[in-house]
Design a protein that fits this description.
The complex is a heterodimer of chains A (276) and B (292).
Chain A: H1 2-39, H2 42-45, H3 59-67, H4 70-102, H5 105-116, H6 119-132, H7 139-164, H8 167-175, H9 180-191, H10 193-209, H11 212-217, H12 225-234, H13 240-260, H14 262-269
Helix pairs in contact in A: 1-13, 3-13, 4-7, 4-10, 5-7, 7-10, 7-14, 8-9, 10-13, 12-13
Chain B: H1 6-14, H2 17-38, E1 40-41, E2 51-52, H3 56-63, H4 65-96, H5 103-115, H6 118-128, H7 135-142, H8 157-182, H9 186-194, H10 199-210, H11 212-227, H12 231-236, H13 248-257, H14 262-291
Antiparallel strand pairs in B: 1-2
The chains are: A mainly alpha (276), B mainly alpha (292).
């Protein structure tokens, strides 16, 4: 009886690991392939049978920086994402606080509406307005539209964090003569630092990844990395290694950042509907 | 309540004010402008001078076979991606809920697809799906299966881009359901085992009903986003070959920025927004009834 049970248990363990390895392989293979492609030369990349063993070359990375203004695109992406995140925090933190404390459902609903409505609906009027103002291809145009992405993420994640800050602490501060605004800045904000960091990273990652707004509103002065990579593809770049190297360079920073905030990613993306 | 500064007394509306202004300017204004555009004949150029044509754009859309095909592609894409993501997501969640070696590492790895830059994801899948040189056809061949055209075939393009969506978003579904699984009470699960229920019965009769709210939330969020999918489809195929993967979102994008028919595109966007918001509202009412 016990031997039989042990056998059943080890069969079960075998299938568990088999399934896990299959899933992890499926999830990671595209990343692995991206890295391998970026380290192979064009002959190896266009071989009919995939070349698995080769001496890696960094030529593709060098050519991305030399033949394209990749550093400039990275800088544009960085500036826009940082500004969209920073302004999003300045606007979003106080709003999230009053939504949390005073149950301002109307505002919460408006933010949800912004998240649900197709982004192109905002893009057409925005492009018309910025064209009229001669402001297409400016940081202002990009940052203000990227706020549509960053602000809802920040507000919804911060509502759940502010909900968890015990109201007694604020009451105690008020008894000591502090006003509500002072209590917010002196007590609530410091206590919510982990949440603010998580919200900032999440907003940064999704601003960095943003493609649609940048595709239309950026130009030679502000072109972001995703748009630049899209242009490499559509202008018939056939150096697969170079394309893959560019893909590695865009994705790597966000993957590394994401690992710091794993616990909050799902919470942020589900608009607080799910606590991870 | 006279104590405190002016800010303390008015905090309730001063604090959210910048966000309210931002939403009015960034979101509400454009939505209303878009509604207005949808009732106009309008282009990006000076001619024709924008003029009011009532529901003319909507009537043109309903007579436009490309509009109906775009609605069809959008629904086809969503109907493949969301159910597959739900079932696979549930399976992955059940697996990750077990105890195993390196559990923390695996949970971190699962997050990566949905965080990776969509343009890069589309690029690498495009290379992998290349009919002549792509590694996916090489794998098919190893398994003794015929090579296929993937995203360059009019019939396979939607399943191909849906496959990329499944890769990118199954982890999201799985993590939502995993959070729900981890909050289940151990007693209820054990009670079911003692009753002599087997694994499958336990899953269908106890576990799924108990995490049903999480499944519903995951399905709603994914449905809303799948209907609007842009990045992956546009980068991989730009709606092609021909118009085989041109969803409503892509058709609206091309109408405004390639064909410069702003009024017409605006009407397509209103239809898309109504579909998406309608589905969101429907799910919301349906689940609210269930929660009571």
């Amino acid at each position: 009886m016990t031997a039989q049970r042990r056998l059943r248990k080890s069969i079960r363990t075998f299938w568990l690991y088999f399934a896990l390895i299959a899933i992890v392989a499926a999830l990671l293979f595209p990343f692995l392939w991206m890295i391998l492609t970026s380290l192979r030369n064009q002959v190896q990349n266009t071989s009919a049978v995939p070349v698995w063993i080769f001496s890696p070359t960094l030529t593709n990375y060098r050519s991305v920086f030399e033949q394209h203004h990749f550093l400039a695109y990275t800088w544009h992406s960085f500036v826009v994402a940082v500004l969209a995140t920073g302004i999003g925090l300045v606007i979003g933190l106080p709003a999230a606080y009053t939504i949390s404390r005073y149950r301002q459902r109307g505002l919460a609903f408006a933010i949800l509406f912004a998240r649900i409505t197709p982004y192109i609906t905002f893009l057409v009027p925005w492009f018309a307005a910025f064209r009229f103002l001669h402001m297409v291809d400016t940081y202002t145009a990009l940052v203000s539209t990227f706020l549509i992405v960053s602000l809802p993420l920040i507000i919804w994640l911060m509502i759940t964090f502010f909900d968890d800050v015990p109201i007694d602490l604020e009451e105690a501060a008020k008894v000591d003569g502090a006003g509500e605004a002072e209590a917010f800045f002196r007590i609530v904000i410091p206590l919510s630092t982990p949440g603010i960091v998580a919200a900032a990273i999440l907003a940064f990652v999704f601003s960095w990844n943003q493609f649609l707004f940048a595709l239309i509103l950026s130009g030679s002065n502000t072109q972001t990395v995703p748009v630049a990579v899209f242009n490499f593809i559509t202008y018939g770049e056939i150096n697969y290694g170079g394309l893959a190297a560019a893909a590695v360079l865009i994705t790597l920073p966000v993957l590394v950042l994401a690992l710091f905030i794993q616990r909050w990613i799902v919470q942020g993306l589900t608009m607080g509907a799910v606590k991870g | 309540m006279l104590q405190g500064t002016w800010l303390d007394r008015n905090l309730r509306w001063v604090f959210p004010l910048p966000a309210v202004i931002a939403i009015l300017v960034l979101v509400v204004g454009p939505v209303l402008t878009n509604l207005l555009f949808s009732l106009q004949s309008r282009s990006w150029g000076i001619f024709p001078v924008p003029h009011f044509i009532g529901f003319g754009n909507y009537l043109s859309a309903f007579k436009d076979s490309r509009f109906w095909s775009a609605v069809g592609e959008m629904l086809y894409f969503t109907a493949i991606a969301v159910p597959v993501e739900t079932l696979l997501g549930l399976a992955v969640a059940l697996l990750l809920n077990q105890d195993f070696f390196l559990k923390g590492v695996v949970r971190s790895l699962v997050l990566l697809p949905m965080i990776a830059t969509p343009v890069a994801v589309a690029l690498i899948w495009g290379l992998m799906m290349n009919p002549e040189l792509g590694v996916l056809n090489y794998f098919l061949q190893l398994l003794g299966l015929p090579r296929i055209l993937w995203d360059t075939s009019p019939t396979l393009v939607i399943p191909s881009v849906a496959l990329v969506d499944v890769w990118e978003w199954t982890p999201f579904m799985a993590l939502i359901m995993l959070a729900a699984l981890q909050s289940l009470s151990q007693e209820q699960l054990e009670a079911a085992t003692i009753d002599g229920a087997n694994w499958w019965q336990r899953l269908v009769r106890i576990i799924i009903p108990m995490i049903r709210p999480a499944i519903v939330v995951a399905v709603i969020l994914r449905t809303i986003d799948a209907l609007k999918t842009f990045d992956i489809i546009y980068v991989m195929t730009q709606g092609g070959p021909g118009t085989a993967s041109e969803t409503l979102n892509i058709y609206a994008f091309k109408s405004s920025f390639l064909y410069l028919r702003i009024g017409y595109a605006a009407s397509l966007l209103v239809v898309l927004a109504v579909i998406v918001l309608g589905i969101a509202a429907f799910f919301n009412i349906w689940t609210r009834g269930e929660r009571k």
